[in-house]
Design brief:
This protein is α/β, with parallel strands linked by helices. The chain contains four helices and eight strands. Strands 5-4-3-2-1-6-7-8 form an eight-stranded parallel β-sheet, sandwiched between helices.
Length: 191
C-alpha cells in the first residue's frame, strides 16, 4: 500500500508506475488516479467532486462535510481517530488529509509505504507540489508547522505495532514521535 503525500520530494516519482494500491491526498487527483482519495479540506472536497468524481467510487472526507453534501453519492467519512483524544492535536477536526490517509492505510494493509511526507518546508517556505495553485498557499508563504502531523501519524504508528511503515525521504531525520520498531526509512531514490 502506497500512501502519497504532496511534499515536493514526490515530484520525481511516477505515481502511475507504482505497483500496488494507492491512497492520495487532495489535489493528487489533478495528476494521477489513486485507489482512495482523501480530501478533508472543504474546498478540495468540492473541487475533487466537481472535476474528478467520475474517476472515484469513493472520496473520503470529514463527517462534518457530508451533511451539506448528501446529494453527492461517492463521499464517505474518513475513519475515526483510533485512540483516546487527550490533546488538541488528537481532535478529528485538527487532522489533515495526510494523517487520515495513513490511518486509512492501516485498515487495508500490513505494509505501508509513505511517499511525499516531507514534514518540513523547503528553505522555510511551503513545500508542496501544488503550491501556487487553486486552494493552496503561495510559494512565498512560510511552511506549515508539522507538529500536528508528527503527533497524529506517530499515534497511528504507535497504535498499529503489527504494521510495517516504510518512509521514503531524503533530507530530514525521523521525528521522535515516529521512532518505533515498525518504522524504517529509505531513500526516495530507491523507488
Amino acid at each position: 500500500m502506497f500512501v502519497l503525500g504532496n511534499g515536493e520530494s514526490r515530484k520525481s516519482i511516477d505515481v502511475a508506475s507504482l505497483q500496488g494500491s494507492k491512497i492520495g491526498c487532495n489535489a493528487i487527483c489533478r495528476d494521477f488516479f489513486v485507489d482512495h482519495l482523501i480530501c478533508v479540506d472543504r474546498r478540495m472536497v468540492d473541487q475533487a467532486h466537481a472535476n474528478y468524481s467520475q474517476n472515484y467510487n469513493k472520496i473520503y472526507t470529514r463527517k462534518d462535510w457530508l451533511d451539506n453534501r448528501k446529494q453527492i453519492k461517492n463521499l464517505i467519512a474518513v475513519p475515526n481517530v483510533p485512540y483516546e483524544i487527550e490533546v488538541r492535536a488528537d481532535e478529528p477536526f485538527q487532522w489533515g488529509s495526510g494523517p487520515y490517509a495513513v490511518l486509512l492505510a492501516t485498515l487495508m494493509s500490513k505494509e505501508i509505504h509513505m511517499i511525499g511526507f516531507d514534514l518540513y518546508g523547503n528553505g522555510q517556505r511551503v513545500n508542496n507540489i501544488y503550491k501556487d495553485t487553486e486552494h493552496y498557499d503561495d510559494s512565498n508563504k512560510s511552511a506549515v508547522d508539522p507538529k500536528y502531523w508528527k503527533h497524529q501519524i506517530g499515534k497511528v504508528i504507535e497504535s498499529n505495532p503489527a504494521i510495517k511503515f516504510i518512509i521514503y525521504q531524503s533530507e530530514w531525520d525521523l521525528p521522535k514521535q515516529w521512532d518505533f520498531e515498525n518504522v524504517s526509512l529509505d531513500s526516495i531514490r530507491n523507488l
